Amino acid sequence: MHAQKIMQTAIRGRWAVAAMFLANGFLTGAWAPQIPVFLTRLDISKFTLGLLILLFGAGAVTAMTWCGHLISRHGSRTVLRWFGLIGSFGLLVVALAPNVPLAAIAMFIFGGSIGGMDVAMNANAVVVERRLSRAIMSSSHGFWSLGGFAGGALGGFAIQNYGHLAHAIVVTAFAFALIAVAVRYLIAEDKPLRGPSRGTGQRKFALPGNPLVYLVGLMALMTMISEGAVLDWAALYLQQELGADLAIAGLAYAAFSGIMAVMRFFGDGVRNRFGAVTTLRVSALVAAAGMLVAGLAPSPWLAIAAFAFCGFGIANMVPILFSAGGNQEGMSSGTGMSVVTTMGYSGILVAPSAIGFIAEHSSFGPIFVALSGLLVVVFLMAGLAHRAEFAPDAAPAE
Question: Model-level pTM?
């Protein structure tokens, strides 16, 4: 009877953390259609807009860096509660900002809340995986993709018909309500750290000494550089180099992200059956092949199909690497997750500008071919993700 109650609690926790992923993705997706209004409302240049978006990324990375320390001291459930509830108001604060200085502060806070929530919810998903002794990370990221799709798809219609502020208010109300319900059912680590000694707390704040977690973070970095490249540059590649019109060019990322979202809901079953390392190896090869064909494609439609194939592969790579980061031996899930997520998301934040600079002196085709090489490196390093493998009670909570 006691075991049954523990399992029921874990299942409720599984859906609670899925709701947090959904809310985070919804808030992030809802920001995208706000960007054109943000540009015209503040009467700023694209360069200034780029700097403000960079502040969003800076806030996210700052929070991600500190989040491992906070989780080590207070547990992922507590940290996720606070970042989630605060983060639900992030978009509204940005929408209310009347000038550039306040918008800069709002963007940093919004990015920090989303980034901190991201680390905490991934760390909590690792806790649920341990409790259930099976993978849930891929489907959790699937809920994030679903939330992002809904936030982006509904946002443009809402802003056009009701205005950007009304849209931000509705998004905030929905996100807050969803998070407020979900936080009641989040589960905690089996042995939450309560800071019995200041020395332990300080030790947990120090950078991990295990080099394996940084190698896993490097794999996440290479994977998310590829993901960010498709997000930011695939449409321009199709339009400028393959002669596609704007409508067709937009299908590149739509195909990539749509297939990725679907595959993430199947990913846990695949991973549970074949193992994390095998799944990662096959996924990396599939993604590399898709990226290679996209870079060599002679026509827009072949490139779109290749990007979709790449999304099929990349879908479950990041969830597996996050699980591996959160299950490193000798450190809390929050500490390992903080390292891997910070390194991984740095790829999305830094790579777009670097790729843009290279593309000015070259073209996008060779860049996508080179990115396929990074995915091959992930294939070769896949064995380092063995900590994402599952066996009943194989990994203690902390």
Answer: 0.73
